[in-house]
Amino acid sequence: QCEEGYICLQGYGDNPNYGYTSFDTFGWAFLSAFRLMTQDYWENLYQLVLRSAGPWHMLFFIVIIFLGSFYLLNLILAIVAMSYDELQKKAEEEEAAEEEALR
Question: What processes does the entry annotate via GO biological process terms (predicted)?
Answer without folding.
Answer: membrane depolarization during action potential; neuronal action potential
